[in-house]
Specification:
The complex is a heterodimer of chains A (194) and B (226).
Chain A: E1 5-18, E2 21-37, H1 49-70, E3 79-86, H2 92-99, H3 103-111, E4 120-124, E5 130-137, E6 148-153, E7 162-170
Parallel strand pairs in A: 3-4
Antiparallel strand pairs in A: 1-2, 2-7, 3-5, 3-7, 5-6
Helix pairs in contact in A: 1-2, 1-3
Chain B: E1 4-14, E2 26-36, H1 50-69, E3 78-85, H2 91-95, H3 98-108, H4 113-122, H5 131-138, E4 152-156, E5 162-169, E6 180-185, E7 194-202
Parallel strand pairs in B: 3-4
Antiparallel strand pairs in B: 1-2, 2-7, 3-5, 3-7, 5-6
Classes of the chains: A alpha+beta (194), B alpha+beta (226).
Chain lengths: 194, 226
Amino acid sequence: MIAAIRKLVVQVDETRRDMGRPVEPPTRRAVAMAVIANPFAGQYAENLDTLISIGEELGQLLGAKCVAALGISPEAAHSYGKAAIVGEGGELEHAAAILHPKMGATLRREVSKGAALVPSAKKMGGLGTAIDVPLGHKDAAFVRSHFDAIEARVADAPRRDEIVVAIAVTDSGRPHPRVGGLQVHEIQGKDGLR
Amino acid sequence: MIEIRRTFTHVEDIFHEFGPPPTTPLRRGAAAAVITNVFAGRYVEDIAPFMEELKPLGLELARRLLAALERPAGAIQGYGKAAVVGAAGELEHGALWHAPGGYGMREVLGWTEGDAALGAAAAGATVAGAAAAAADSAAGAQPGNALAIVSSTKKVGGPGTAIDVPLTHLNASYVRSHLDAIEVRVPGAPAADEVVYILVMSCGPRVHERLGGLRVEQIERWDGQK
């Protein structure tokens, strides 16, 4: 493990009723977060390969944590998303290095398939900063019922020299989707969009 | 029959807090249920009967939390409970959680009615039938599990309100290494007419505990305190 992990947090959010109506089956969303040391805190580094490798291993670790917490097979995953909060001693580019070059590939192996872009968010923050992790269907980005977000937040992180890295996986869309668009049963799953 | 609108589980592994990492990371967790506050928006004098309706929720949340922690009941070392009441409710609605949340969790962790009698005996009361157990207690044997009061916090708050839930050792409240707290927050809850009921458990002491006091191995009285 390249990442120096101080803390791992896994949350599962299950909605059984919304607006007084039953949600059947309940919508379930998991978010897994790792608090890691930022190897480049306090310095400008041109080469961010270490963070890129960290992103690769966290894609696997956090993706697996989410799937396990949901208690589902990888094939049963519906949507995913990723995000990072960089402590004050770092820069936004550190989040980009973790999230974009290699995290997607390892995450996709944990959820099976995944033709669609993994939607993402990033920000600078302090202890307890919350970030809304965007969610989109893993096989077709246009599936409107699965556009959503889940909040990620670790009460005592990130400190100055830390980064909070979050991955979210669901086995469902929003509780009562009814605004049309591409439906799950219409997914072709080839071009990442439809 | 209460209706659960939403459940939320939180599990964390603390590898270190900038000190020497323990061999096994500290695992702690919380389970929360968001339910409709049937007393929202008005003053109801007689709310106590609702505690009976909350009993199954206490048991369910405790079992759910154990499952999320992926640990057997015997591995749990600390616990606590809390409630966040939505804006149309009052603090007293949070207090409804004390008995069903506390006793529900203690039951799942091995506490029995017999332990209550024993606790009374150990505390010096004369309780018929508990004498033999009290003799065991005097010999220093652990008479049961989850003997300590479940410490708690409660507040009235809006959606996403964070609450610090206290953690204490489950057999002796004075064990200093296990005095702790965990922040719990359910994004989006409670709405004005909802309550969030929370149970928390930990599988060990603070990650770098080093402040002495009563140690786990020094528990003698088995009265839930020392």
